[in-house]
Amino acid sequence: MSQNQTTDASRSPADELSLRHGPAWRNRLALAPLTNTQSHADGTLSDDEHDWLVARGRGGFGMTMTCAAYVGPAAQAWGGQLGIATDEHLPGLERLAASLRATGTVSSVQLYHGGRRSDPALTGVDNVAPWSDPATRSVALTTEGVEEVVQQFVDAAVRAERAGFDGVQVHGAHGYLVGQFMDARKNDRTDRYGGSLENRMRMTLEILQGIRDATGPDFQLSLRLTPEGNGIQLEDGRAIAGEVLASGLLDHLDVSLWDVFMKPRGGADGLLIDHFVDLPRHGALLSVAGTVDSAADVQWCLDRGVDAVSVGIAAILHHDFAARAIADPEFTARPRPVAREVLRAEHVSPTFIDYLAAGWKDLVA
Fold first, then answer.
1. Active site residues
2. Rg of the Cα atoms in the chain
3. How many helices and strands (H and E) does the chain possess?
4. Domain architecture of the chain: domains with CATH
5. Can you tell me the distance from the alpha carbon of 14 to that of 161, in angstroms, rounded to the nearest whole number?
6. What's the pTM value of the predicted model, to 2 decimals?
């Protein structure tokens, strides 16, 4: 049995993790993909975004992931979003990949399409989605249009590999385009991409297969999923997770829980995390994310049965959260709200701080 499939309670945050493809992670801690609005208006990398991510690599994270990077002309959802849609984005991505590699962290780009949650004011075109939605200026993709979006994800992954990143993560969570196709409430398409669960998750599997076919044997492939919510019932979330793990395409599945300690919204027994840790992993890593603020929280997740932990807010508060949590089992992130000058010392730019102050209650003093 490989290290990432151990079933006892002996997991330590400091453990090195071997994946099916590409380099080992030096520990079980990953930087979660975090929106930061620091890129230039054309999606090219800024110095602020470069410095924020590289600081997390220096801070000891086993894997460092970018924010959601848009893959095509209709995919962008907010200003200052990183792009990986054209070769014009390559120089900045190459610089970032090289800088992250120098810190010893494994690097990954999160690939993203906003779908009906994109912003036509930024993209200059109507949104595309599984179904038409005039309220969000969204038009339903044709079957050929879905195939084109699948290819945009594949092309973006190839671009990430060319830039020197160790892997990519497909953003299938939080009700963005890939997740919209999984929405049982609204995706009643009559082609092969709608209706049944098999059809609703077909786009996801085609993206994963396309990326695996188009990239090299040392390139890591990840998927982020919402286990429950955004039109996904827990039963479907568990089935989707089980199917993608069984596909053999993944190196890493990240389940975004919002709160690792939460119970299922639909009233199922136990904690939400418990409905995923028992799934056969077929050699892939399973990680969770959500309200992990201390070394004890990390260890709790590992003891619950996951292989790795993705850290968000606590990694904003401490660029070296990973190193601190590994060194000190009692370490806890600083209390909130946090002064702006403290965040600046953690390599969080004024632009990012303004975004956090507007969107997160009681985070910025």
1. 176
2. 19
3. 13, 10
4. 3-333 (3.20.20.70)
5. 27
6. 0.96
